[in-house]
Predict the 3D structure of the following.
Amino acid sequence: MPTESPTSTAPFNEAIAEAERLVRAAPHIQSEQDLVEGLQYLAGGITSMLHVAFAAERTHPMLMQGTGPYTKMGLDNPDTLYFGARVSADHEYVVTGTRGTTADLSFQVLAGQYTDDNVPGSATAFDDRELTIADDGSFTVRFGPGPADGRENYFTLAPDAAQLVIREVYSDWSQTPGTIRIHRADTIGTAPPLLSETSAARRFAGAGKALVTRVKTWLQFPEWFYLKLPVNTMTEPRLTPGGLATQFSSVGHYDLADDQAMIITVPASDAPYQGFQLGSLWYVSLDYVNHQTSLNNAQAQVDPDGMIRMVVSERDPGIVNWVETVGHPRGYVQFRWQRTSRDFLPEDGPQVEIVNLEEVSAKLPFHTSNTITAEDWTARIALRQQAFADRMPA
């Protein structure tokens, strides 16, 4: 008969309280909306950490969405589904699946974990162009401790390998997803051991520690890569720190008055994926389902000169490429170019201009063809909502 143990969840409860103190003490909080969003962010972290702690088994790995539309962290990309599994360098893991029609499918093995004083390096990073894929779209990839020795689709795990991250990236949100799964070669067909009260308590404690680390990490991360940059500017394209081997990014942070707009001009890229998004000061994406807070190369209008011109503002400028700040006068801006086949140069990156809202029409050389009616805007948002429902279940 199970015994009552009122202390099993105590470490997790204490961690929640500590994480809430960190959220409430965040230096960027200036309004009730900022705080409420922080509490919502905390709720997503609680959900994610508990799910990972009790669903994940080291001996029987499974791909899990630690970052998702309701468990956001790390300036999550609205165009990406993230899957992760813990790995250890002394075991072999088999990833099988079928390739969908998405813009990119990439694999990354992290050496260590993100913390508030460490960005883990990529022990391995590649996209599916490195794989042999069958005519029917099926593939098998192996990650293990041994040398590849010419074995097809085999990648050697570094001694400090800790996590496999797989990203499925959409441009058109109606693209067809693939399928993907993982197992450990020596445990397939067996069952993991049952939990005991002691091991359950350990998992609660581990989830609590991970929750506090998660909050600390992503409050610190922007200090390293964003906030030291001049406000209302964006960097030249650069390889993403700690990211994929074939991903370039351009980042910055904005601070706009209600009657101001940021006009961003960028060439339509030759990369299969080019995406832009806004993020809140909690370093997570804004509401990209019910508002147009992101645009990618399939969604954005391209002008006749091959340039994409976007207007970031709180108030509606009446153009197709309006990117809504939805009550966030301050936040983060980021471009990503993925599945690249060349280095990206300064001329591939964005140019930024801050103007008064009434100046927008004069600043857009193709303004007449950039405009959109209120009815068409509503239809545009409806398409986002429908595509999200099909692509990203809760």
Q: What stands out?
A: The longest helix spans residues 197-225. The chain has a mean pLDDT of 93.
